[in-house]
Amino acid sequence: MVTTQPPETRRVLIIDDEDIIRDSVATYLGDSGFDVHQATDGREGLRRFQEIRPDVVLLDLRMPRMDGLEVLEAISEELDQVPVIVVTGAGVLQDAVAALRLGAFDFVTKPIVDMAVLEHAVLRALENNRLKEENRRYQAHLEDEIRIRTRDLHRRTEELEVANADLQNEMEIREKTAAALKQSESRLAEMVSIFQGFIYTCDANFRLEFVNRTLARHVGDDVIGKLCHMALYRLEQPCAWCRYTDVLKGESVHTEFFNERDGRWYDAVQAPVFDGQGQVRNLQAVVLDITERKTTEDWLRQREAQLSKKIRRLKSNLRTASRFGRIIGKSRPMQEVYENILKAAESNAHVIIYGESGTGKELVARTIHDLSDRGSKKFVTVHCGAIPDTLIESEFFGYRKGAFTGADQDKPGYLDAADGGTLFMDEVGELNLTMQVKLLRAIEGGGYTPIGGRAVRQADLRIVAATNRNLRASLDAGRFRKDFYYRIHILPIYLPPLKSRKEDIPLLVNHFVNDFPHGEKLPVVPQRIIAAMQEYDWPGNVRELQNTVQRYITLGKIDFLDLPPDDPKTQTVSDDLVAVQPDDANRSLSEAVRAFEKGYIQHLLNENHWHRSRVARLLGVDRRTLFRKMKSHGL
Ligand SMILES: Nc1ncnc2c1ncn2[C@@H]1O[C@H](COP(=O)(O)OP(=O)(O)OP(=O)(O)O)[C@@H](O)[C@H]1O
C-alpha cells in the first residue's frame, strides 16, 4: 500500500549526469512536496548521500567518472535502509537487472514519459522502507519482549528451582519426621503392650475402644465396644471409684481403690482425650495393681506401731529397770546408754559405739539391731582387727569363682550377708585406709565389686561400728580417714567402763551366776566377795567380771584377791596352767594344745588386767593374732 503521509519530510537524492532529466524530475518531485537534492555524477552522488542521508535515491546508471553500479556497490551496506531506484535507458535492461542484483529497489526506464510513474515508484520505495522500518521496530520490540519474557522466565525458573529445593527439603524433613513418628509410635505401642498394668480408652458412654495386651489377657479380647465397668469389673453401674464426670470436664485424676471382686488394690490415673477442637472425645485410664505395695505399707505401719509401742514401753521402764534386754545395769551412765540405744533403734543412721574392751559394745550393737526395723534381717559381725590385710577385701566384698588359686566357687562377702540388715564392725579403728575408701564408696551408694567380678553390687546396709580406740587421735595421726569417720560417726554411743558404775556389779554378778550352767542348787557368791569385787578396778570390764565369776564358781578362785579357801573346789584346782588333768588323758594332742592355749591366754589376760596389747607382746604375736585366738576360744 502506498503511504498517504505528506512527502515533504522525505529527502530524495537524484544522481544523474543529464541535466534535463535531473531538473525535470526534481521539479516534479519538488512540486509534489519532496525535499529534493541533486548530484551530477556518481562521486558527487556518494558525497551528497553521506551528507544528507536521503530517504530514497534516484540513480542513473550510465555516468562519467563513477557509474551507477559502482555507487550501488559503495552504498551496499546502506541499501537496507535507503532504497535506490535505478533510472536507466530502455536499451540497457541488463544494467537494470545487474543493479537489482546489487540491491536496487526498483528501476524506471528513460525516457521518463510519465512522471507520475516515477513518483509512484518513489512513494512505493518509501512505503516499502517505512514498512521495513516498522518491521524492524516491531522485530526489535518483539526481541525486547522476548528478552524480557526470557529473563522473567529465567527468574521464574530460578524461583521455581529454589521452591522445588525447599519443597524437596521439606519433603525429606517430613519423611524423616514421619519415620521418627512411626518409630516412636511403634515404641509406644510396644511399651503399652508390655506394660504390666491395665491401659484402656473408652468413649463418653463407657464403651471400650482400646485395651492393652495385659488387660486383654485379663478380661479377654472381645471386650471392645462393651461397657468398661461391665467388661472389666462385672459391675452394672459405673465403678464407684471412677471420676468420669471430672475427666469429662477435662481434668486428670488419680485414685487408689480396693476392688472387692478380686480383693486387690489398684492405683488408677484417668485422663481426658481431646479432639482437634479441644473437646473431650474419650477417656483413657492406666490402672496398676498395687496390692503388694499396699500390703507392705500395712505391714510397715503395723511394725512401726509395734515398734513404737515396744519403744514406749521400754522407755517407761527405763528409769527403774535394772536391765535392758540382755544388758545388765541400772546405774545412771547405763540409763543414758539405754536411751541412746532406743534413739539408734528408731533411726536408720550409722552408729559408732565407743568403750573399753569388754564393756559390752557388741551386746549393745546387737540390741540396737534387734530393736530396729532391720531386726528380722541378719546381724553380721566383722572383727576388723582379726582379718589379715591380704584377705580383708575378699572378706568384705566376697569373690567370684576363679578369682585366685583356691577360689573354686563364688563366695559372698560380709556386705552381701548383711544386705538389708546390720553390719557390726568391731575394732573399726583397725581397718586400713584403702579399705576405708572402698567401704565408704559402698555405703554411699557407689556399690562394690567382688574380687574377680565385674558387676557392681549394691547393699542396703546399716553400719554399727565399735572401737576402744580414740578415733580422733587416729584421725590426727592419719590412720583414719576423715570422710569415713564422719560417715559412721553419726550416732555415737559411749559405754562407761565398769569401774565408773560399780553399783551395777552385784546385778552383773547375779546375772552371771544365773547364766552359768548349774544343777538344782544355784551357786552363791558371798556378799564379802561381791564387796571385794566392788573395790577392784576391772581393767577388763564386764568380760573380766564375767570370767572372774565363772572361775569363782568353778575354781573357787579369784585372781586379784587373796581368798580364804572356803570352797572345796579351790583345793582340787588351783591354776589355769594345769593343762592336762587326769580325766583329760584321752585328748588328742591338738585338743590338748588348744586347751593349753586357751588357759594360757586367759591366764595372761587375767594377770595383765585384760590389757591385750601387752598380752600380745608377752606372747610374741601381733594384736590381730591375739584377737583372732581370743574370739576362737570365746574369750
Ligand atoms: N552390761 C552387760 N550386761 C550383761 N553382759 C554384759 C554386759 N556388758 C558386757 N557383757 C558381757 O561381757 C562380754 C563382753 O561383751 P562384749 O563382747 O559385748 O564387749 P566388747 O566391748 O564388744 O568387747 P571387745 O572390745 O573386747 O570386743 C560378753 O559376754 C557380754 O555378754
TrEMBL record:
Q: PROSITE patterns of this UniProt entry?
A: PAC, RESPONSE_REGULATORY, SIGMA54_INTERACT_1, SIGMA54_INTERACT_2, SIGMA54_INTERACT_3, SIGMA54_INTERACT_4
Which stretches make up the Response regulatory domain? Answer: 11-125
Residue ranges constituting the PAC domain according to the UniProt record: 251-302
Question: Which sequence ranges form a coiled-coil region, renumbered to this chain?
Answer: 128-184
Chain positions with 4-aspartylphosphate modification: 60
Question: Which keywords does UniProt give here?
Answer: ATP-binding, Coiled coil, DNA-binding, Nucleotide-binding, Phosphoprotein, Transcription, Transcription regulation
Q: Which GO terms describe its biological process?
A: phosphorelay signal transduction system; regulation of DNA-templated transcription
Return the Pfam families for the record. AAA_lid_14, HTH_8, PAS_4, Response_reg, Sigma54_activat
GO function terms (MF aspect): ATP binding; sequence-specific DNA binding
SMART domains xrefs: AAA, REC
Task: Tell me the superkingdom of the source.
Answer: Bacteria
The UniProt record lists the Sigma-54 factor interaction domain at: 327-554
**The protein, known as:** Sigma-54-dependent Fis family transcriptional regulator
Can you name the source organism? Desulfosarcina widdelii
Taxon lineage:
Bacteria, Pseudomonadati, Thermodesulfobacteriota, Desulfobacteria, Desulfobacterales
